[in-house]
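Q: Can I see a sequence and its folded structure?
A: Here is a first one.
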Amino acid sequence: MKPLAYPETRRGTVVEDHFGEKIADPYRWLENDVRSDKEVAAWVERENAVTRAYLDTLPQRGWFAARIRELIDYERFGLPVKAAGRYFYTRNSGLQNQAQLFVRDGLNGTPRLLLDPNSWAKDGATALDAWEPSDDGRHLLYSVQDGGSDWRVIKVLDVKTGQPLADEVKWAKFTGIAWVGNDGFLYSRFPEPEQGTAFQGRNYDHKVYYHKVGTPQSADQLVLETPDQREMNHTAEVTPDGRYAVITSSTGTDNRQQVRVIDLSRRKTDGWKIRMLVAEPKDDWKLVASTGTNLWFVTNQNAPRYRLVVADMAAAQPQFRQVVAERGDLLERATIIGNQLVLNYLKDAASHAEIVSLDGKKVRTLTLGELGTASGFDGKPGDPETFYTYSSFNQPAAIYRMDIATGKSEPFAKPALKFDPAKYAIEQRFYASKDGTKVPMFVVRNKVASQAGKALPTLLYGYGGFDVSLTPGYSAARMAWLEAGGAFAMANLRGGGEYGKEWHDGGRLANKQNVFDDFIAAGEYLIAQGITPKGGLAVQGGSNGGLLIGAVVNQRPDLFAAANAQVGVMDMLRFDRFTAGRYWVDDYGYPEKEADFRVLRKYSPYHNIRAGVDYPAVLVTTADTDDRVVPGHSFKYTAALQAAKVGDKPHLIRIETRAGHGSGKPTDKVIEESSDILAFLARWSGLQTPAQ
């Protein structure tokens, strides 16, 4: 095998002392912003040219591109939101780069187009992010995302005319948007960054503001700031009945918040008078709703798998009263619809839901699929209906309308499929990790191949961090992999939220190695069980999952045939120096603390590449506008990988332009990137696409 000729990458001379250890960082210069540093921009251009030339030679690419395009070309709807008899929802006809926003007057009214993000940018990379109609249905509040960045611009639309108002709020980030009455809203923002730092600089001094419709941003009222705690983030919500504003505040990614409450019914006399409800940020508090003076929350206070509680804000010192106790399954969220509660549970990473009365007594269990994901169930106390989605690996999201009184569901929008879901078997397996812990994993295969016991090239996906649960869901790219004759597996690694706090704690900080051990054990299990042939295992992960891929490839390069590390955190000694990286210390620890440094140093992908060992084929993917995990992580890791003597298989990087960490990516870019990745993984795992 003739090795690829990689572009030459300049090695710098940076060497730093970390607790007595001299650590070289020869590619530090690749951290510079590609938008302003000509040397970095030139490096990106050279790397992309080599990668493009290689990917274009792969025989599988054309088939994947065509089939993914077919599989994603179906009518897709978002969950409807009702306001004053109007129903608002998103719809993508199939291949539109961005979903459009529609409104109907009445459930069966004629759809009317309100917003078409496809007209906002020639390349389709400007997206509609969050949106919320006012309670009277007259205005629509919405946020705009450009080029995949985390920054948002918030605007207001007149629903009747379909015309935007002059209102424009800039520098919003990590924000909710919440109407206060019908004439203003709460949002969160950072100070305007200094010139040239918007996509790289760390974010401090998050504040909550109130914007009155029809006024300039300069007139916005400051509602909350914490100048003595500059690292704290604040998210404002308003209860569905409009009675209370609830602001949750935290300093990192851990679900540990302070909770503040504003009684909006007294705003004319009290202004933005804030009342501290939870002062110690030790637990997670998920707002449910308010009924009268009662505030409802789902919390893990004294309940690692969560429980439902209520507090009466009329009391001088409100106390939380338990309504639904903690169970063996994870209580993800709750909503009050009509005069009943809808509870969403997670059991072994699959959804189920039930309806209970306001005093916690069970009314009925909702019938959902066996291994899938249900979400939605939004609405208000007094509403007669709610909408929810259900999806699985072989089922694109379908939307249902449920009558809350009877529990009867009927389809609101079901996609027309271009494949036969009955051809695919979805199993849940439990395998033993290195320390004996049982870890769940979903395995999806063609039923005929499964029954025949045929080993198939397998794509294994993982994440394992930040209390994030991986649940079943549809992906056109994964379905294309299955149709090509491969198997797909998704492991629910420790560090995630599938089993609550204990599962999360088991895979973070000093326990981070458990995540890598869980993933390696998943790969070994797939091969040992005859699901995957030796030399047929491809692996993939994004963001924290990109870190996962970088770490396990270093630790067990012999186990994997091919790897795709997407927008990964690759330099664990400097992750906290850029944009949102400082929040991640809750999962990773502090590089400047020696005990944490010792852990991070052992698995940091950039610092643990093993020269002289044959590595699998590696495709790193990132984007120039990623201001969540800055692309310098991927740039430095790739440069080090290409410079090391790790075998002749390709070690390439694909750098997307006008894209970010993933959200808002136009459909065209999704198809192009997915076909590149799958063709690369198929080539090196032995997957032969049909008619190849």
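Q: Show me another, different protein.
A: A second, unrelated one:
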Amino acid sequence: MVSATRPDPADVQTGASGGSRSGSRRWNLRAGRLLRGGAPAGRVLRLFVRLVRRPLLPAVRLWRRNIQLRVVAATLLISLSVVLALGFVVIAQVSKGLLDAKEEAAQSQAAGGFAVAQEKANTPATADGPDAADSKVGRDASTWMNSLVKQLASGGQTAFEVAALGAGTGEQTQPGAQGVRGARASGNVDPTASVPLRLRQAVNHATGTFKTFSEIRYTSGAEQKQPEPALVVGKRLTDINGDPYDLYYLFPLTQEEESLNLVKSTIATAGLFVVVLLSGIAWLVVRQVVSPVRMAAGIAERLSAGRLQERMKVTGEDDIARLGEAFNKMAQNLQNKIQQLEELSRMQRRFVSDVSHELRTPLTTVRMAADVIHDARVDFDPVTARSAELLAGQLDRFESLLADLLEISRFDAGAAALEAEPIDLRDVVRRVIDGAEPLAEHKGTRIRVLGDTQPVIAEADARRVERVLRNLVVNAVEHGEGRDVVVRLASAGGAVAIAVRDYGVGLKPGEATRVFNRFWRADPARARTTGGTGLGLSIAVEDARLHGGWLQAWGEPGGGSQFRLTLPRTADEPLRGSPIPLEPEDSRANRAKAAAEAAGRSAAPERSSAEGADRSSIPPRSRVAGAVPVPADPTALPGSGARVVARPADQAQQEDRADGR
């Protein structure tokens, strides 16, 4: 059995062929890229948003910083909401009371008028007498009704108007219909326009008195009045001939409306006064609380700037006064502690400097004696000769330690001076690598340099930069486990950077922030084969700070580490970023990300071929072999300056076996 399928309406509208669908889809993709890529409409929208935000920024900044403004504004809004709610309730109650009183009085007065009209219609006919004007003899129903309307309206004295309509008027509304010709009213009132149709229908279809709210409309004339709200009360009656007609009383609500307007204006004036009064009270109260807080904030800022003698002015015995006294006591204790720490630090620096200087004289004497013994070691027995060699080696390390201590004491005392001049960092890197080559050959390590094809010029102290790079390269060779050490140079914007990458033991989580501490070791049991003093990285980070630059570390356990030195291209120029990313591209996280992107790109052609022949012809983007990665934007923030990525132990073992290490 063959079954037919209905075509998709979308296919019918756009064409069932795959070519038209793919063409439409390609047009949509191009339109989407155009909009995402910055269409003129998008640029206009961004320009409009920027123009709108610019004048609002000062107000937003003031709103965020001024707590007094926020409290007063909140009080103003809350009090305004309360006044509005209260005003609505009061106006509703007053309006309901006025209308209820008016409705009760109108019903009572209209009932009396209906009774009088029906009584006149039921009065027996007389030929003469004082009531001859109301007699049925010689008079028709139309004349009688005109007289009735005038008589009933005369008792109102503008308190109400009277209108009479013929029976059936509520059902026939066309011009010239029966009953409309008999419409009559007092006071130039237009009865057909003033009496609502629903009320006429209710009066025609039922007995009793009916009422509704409407407007009194007047006929055109020399002194035409404007429509005014009114309460309309109507009832079905019979005339002198026994024929039915509708009689309506129209009670204007002008006085009630004026009374209600007076109540509204009174409530609005009082509410505005209350809102302004509450806002002023809130401003005064908040000012009494905020002023001491602002004073405390200003004094705290001056304390943080080093003016430790600042104190708050305390008056009274309230909570604010106790807060001021506590703040002053805290500032006093803080000043005493800081002075004690400064004195202790000064004594420590003086002690280190004095000891370092005092040790140089006996060290010189010991060095002279040690050199004599070392030169004559060929005449000694093997044990004594070895002791002479150990003595010379330890004296060399002792001299290096004294030199580092003196340098640290200069940094602590603020006596370190920067002798900056334009230098090519490639020359500094070459000198450092030449000095580290013997140690690298001994370790079986190869030192590679990348990014040295173009000059890398910066205003720096060549001696200090060389000392920093020597520490970094020697540490990388010592901890690199015999693997390659990569030195990368780059410059972009107003910054230059040198990164030293090794593939050794790496850094554990938390060690990247402590690696620059004095006398710190990642492994306390590890021997210093190069005679290091433990102060190299501490001096290096001080040298970087003296240049106004950064010295940052990254590492992962078993995946090596990278130290990055970033310097401003021009002295005294602030740094905004580094041209070399702190985390190298061959880290585990970046390799995993690159593998995921490669897998996604390899799957893209399969999805494209399944969608249509036109799309399958577009080749997927692939990475060019040997392509140099684009350096990071120098305006990008460097982050915390230290990052350590942990890895599982089993993954580390697998990678080590794969590398053959």
